Structures are given as structure tokens and as C-alpha cells.
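Course assignment 3, question 2. Fill in each field.
Student: A.L.
Task: Predict the tertiary structure for the chain below.
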Amino acid sequence: MDFPHLFSPLTINSMVTKNRIVATPTGDFFEDKALGGAGIVIAGHAIVEPGHSSYSSADEPDPFAKYEVEETRRRVLKIHQAGAKASIELFHGGEYARVHGFARGPVAKTRDDGIEVRAMTAQDMDLVAGLFGRAAREARDIGFDMVFLHFGHGWLPAQFLSPRNNQRTDEYGGSLENRARFPLQILAAVREAVGPRFPVDMRISAYEFMENSIEFPDVLEFIRMAEPYLDTVQISAGVDIGIQGNVHCATTNFEKHMPNAVWAAEVKKNVNIPVSVVGAVMTPDEAEQLIAGESVDMVALGRPLIADPDWPRKAQEGRADEIVPCIRCLQCYHISTNRRNVGCSVNPRFWNESFIPRRAEPAARTRHVVVVGGGPGGLTAALTAAERGHRVTLLERETVLGGQLQYVAREHYKQDIRAYLDYLLRKVADSTIDVRLGCEATPDRVAELAPDALVVAVGATEVTPPIPGIDQPHVMTGNDAIMREDELGEHVVVVGAGSIGTEIGLELARLRGKQVTLVEMGDRYAPQGNSLYREGLWQKVDTTPNLQFRFRSRCARIEADGVVVVDERGTEHRLRADNVVISVGMRARSEQARAFYGITPEIVMVGDCVRPRIIMDAVFEGHTYALNV
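Answer field:
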């Protein structure tokens, strides 16, 4: 076996789990994660004070109520059918509860959204502790194997533990012993409710990344206080309220893998219960390394199992190179996307389980599918069509596959994109797809292939604005700059501070040591990205002093050794530049794509040739069309 420690059993109180993989409560696809081989599947969360304590919605139901309990029990059955153990998160929003009039926390305050928060009394604490116990008992009684208490990410127990939230002056505030009093009361109530032999898990943030917050030594001491009530503990980081701390709950591609492992390892040295870690453990190699090195006992996987629920099974069967890598784009996270356009860039089924099957069904009859364009949309369409048994021909005008991915993947911070591109290339190499590189597709050439179905995925091209001097040899596009970083001089001006331009500027300044200035007509950089992506980018930009911005300015002309920009007052400024990078957006190749219409009735445009968008859109369109050919 390639990963012997990862796939060894573990005893947690009276429960034995078949491996060391915990599927976190992300999404509703519990069955997929169980069938994919996870040892423990956490089946979403249960609000412990129904109608009052939810952060998600004022209307969130009680999963143990009379008309909900059978649906909750079905979650258990779906998980058990594959031999996984079923757990459920118990959660209380505290001062961040959505329901007007029911927000309660350590102290009275007015939230930023105007909601009045009431300070909890001792009677309130008795009630809530009892409700935690009631929820745990209900979970046990309908078949869950374990409960998962959320004491991290800024929720109610964490609010009492953190000096940032808890400024009480009574026996529940001040010292750690006092701040821990109510959280320990909750743990005691849960243990009393479920008995000594039922497994209890707890998640906690090792570090919140907020001012005046709880420090790791106090977190570690609290875990030791809590240990008598617990059977295992999961180490996370950040807070789920506000972007500043949220970006550490779910890290962006600007951060390294396994950021919480160092804290988890320290916890493991100081307790006698199993320790798990959550947060950007991306590959089986990383998971095996952590467990074999005795840093942790288990790994908790969120986004990696969204990207590929079969991650555990593929790793166990020696097929780790078939795992679809998560690219850490955070489109799956409702906080990041403001609950709009939620999905997974590399797994179209996520969030769409009701109409996209777990496995592609074989086609009723074999057809010839021609795909024009080898970017993520075209590659996905070709792979899905080939998997279903169709004869597939893919035409790509470049000499390499990948489309825009081939450029993005070269950036230092895009190691996860690189892994995804490598995965796609391996899949194509192992498939029956007839790939024709360096082949400029024309309507006549495609018609000669006599396709039964045609997928047009010709992408978009970089916009070249009519700036005087733009045709000089030291001026290049964003893609050219990525490919030619070694050739660039000391001073670089980037025209355009969208996501691509800002990332290029950051790469050149932070990693190459260049003096970089970005010129942007708007008043902020990277406005297109989701909120957590922007925060992750901002945290890097803000600590890169040799990266400067000229907002509300336009590039008037490019000279041999500089750029002349005009600010909002009409004043000209000259910026020194050894090289100038143009990154002002992408333009869809719509006209080229539309030229293929009429060759066959079965035709679709996918990806950026419709309009420039994100990877998720291209992959979804390519996959879903190929499912129905």
C-alpha cells in the first residue's frame, strides 16, 4: 500500500474508523464522500437552538425535529452504506445569530449590521449547555457514531474564549479559567447526555488572526482543560466572521499547504487523545507525511473532497495520480461568493448533485465528437465524451494543451493550478482522444472531419489597447511576461490592475525583486475576484513595498525607457520602465466561434469564447454538454 499510515484503522473511544480521513461538513454530498472512501463523514451541522442560533438563515430547520428527523437519519444511512462512520456538527452562532432579537454573546453590543446583541446570563448558559447536550443525545439516538462540537471559527464557545469578544468582568471573563467556564459547561453537558462510551470530537482555532484575540498558548491550555470530556480534537484556524479571519479558515492559493499542521503537532505533544488537522492538506503524500511523522493522527479534508470525493479510494488503490486536484479558488465557499455562483471549478457535480450523475453513463451509441480548443472547457468536454465511449478528435492551434492554464500554472502562487493542468494532461494522454496539436481549426477543416457533435472552445485573446508606443520591443502582454520573467528588467510598469495584472505584478515584485508599478483607471485592484481571493491577494500586496499602484490613471503613451500616465486631474507623470506589461483584459473569440455554426446541428460554445469568465464555467459547460451527447 502506498500510504500505510493514512489507511490504518484508529480507535476513538468505542468507535473504530477504517482509515485516518475525516470528511468535513462541506456541502450535502455525504453519500459521495462515504462511497469515495472517507473513514468519518461529518454530515453537515445541527443548530443547537433551532430558530435562534443559526448564522446561515433564520429559517434553518432543527434536524432532530419531528418532520426533519427522518431526513437526518437518511444522512446516517447514506454514510453507513460504504462503511464510513457518521458524525454531525453541533453549532451555535452566539452573537452572530441571524435571528433578530436572539443574538446573544459574552457581552452586550451593537453589531456592524445594527443588530443588538444581549449579554448572556447564567440562566442563558444553562439553557444553551442543555441544548448542546440534547442535540448530542438526539444524534446518538438516531444512529450517528460521533458528534463534532464546533468551538472554533468565532462561534459561541470561541466568543467566550477570546478576549476580543469576551470583556466580561464576572466569573465568565478575564482569566482563561473564567473565559473557559461556559465552554467547559457545554462539554460537561454533552458528555453527561451521551455517556462515557460515545465519541465526542471538537474543532477549535489554534489562532484566529484577529486583533486582541486568543493566543495559541491559551488555546492549548483550554484543550488540556477540555480533554477529560473529549475523545479527539480537530485543529483549525481563523474565524468565520469577516474576511480578515475567514481567509485563514479556508486558505487561498497565496498560502502554503498544511498551514495548521505546526499547531496540531504541538497539540498532539500535549494531549493523550487523537488529534486531527484541517486546512489545505491537499495530497495523499502530505497526509501520509503528517501521520507517519506523528504530527497528527487524522487529516480532515474539505475542499479536496469537493474537488474529488473519490480522493481516499483512489489513493488507497494506488491511483493517486487520478485524483482531481483542488485549485483553492474558493468558488465552493458561500462566504467567498456572497452565496452566488457557488460551485467547484474542477468538479461540476458539486452543488449540482440533483442533475449531474456521480458517474458518466456510457453512450447509447458511439458518435464522432470534435472539440476545437484545448483549454479547460475543451479538455473536459473531450474527456467526458471519451469516457462515455464516443470517438473524440481534439484540435488545438497551439503546440501544447491547456489554453490559459498553461500561462497561469507558471505563476509561483498557482501550484494548485499546475497540479490540475498536469492531471488533465495525464488524463488526455491515457485516453482514446485523437489530439492534433498545432492544428488551426477552420470551418472547412472541421467539416471534413464529419462530426456528429461539435464543441467550440476557442477561448479569448488578450486585449491590445491603442496606446502610442505599444509596438516597441520592451512592451509585452501579460502572458508573454509570465513566459519571459527572466528577461525583464529592474523596473516594470504593468498597465491594468485586474486579477491577472495584479498577480503578475505581485509575482515580479515579491518573488523576483522587481520595482513594479501598476497603472489602473479604476480605484481598486483585482475587483473581479471573489472576496476571499481578494483578501488573500491584498494580504500579500500589502506586505510587498516594492509593488506600487497608480489608481484613477491612464497610460497616455509608452516611451523607450518609461511610461507617461495621466491622473484624474489631467496631470502627466513619467514612470521609469525597463519593460511594460499590458494586462487590460480578455476579449472572447466569439466571431471565430460562431463561424463553426452550420457544420452540424449538434454544436455548442463553451468557456471564454462565450465571454471571458472563470475556470468553473468552462469546465461545467464542457462536462454537462458531453454528458448529453
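Instructor remarks: The mean pLDDT is 95. The radius of gyration is 27 Å.
Grade: pending
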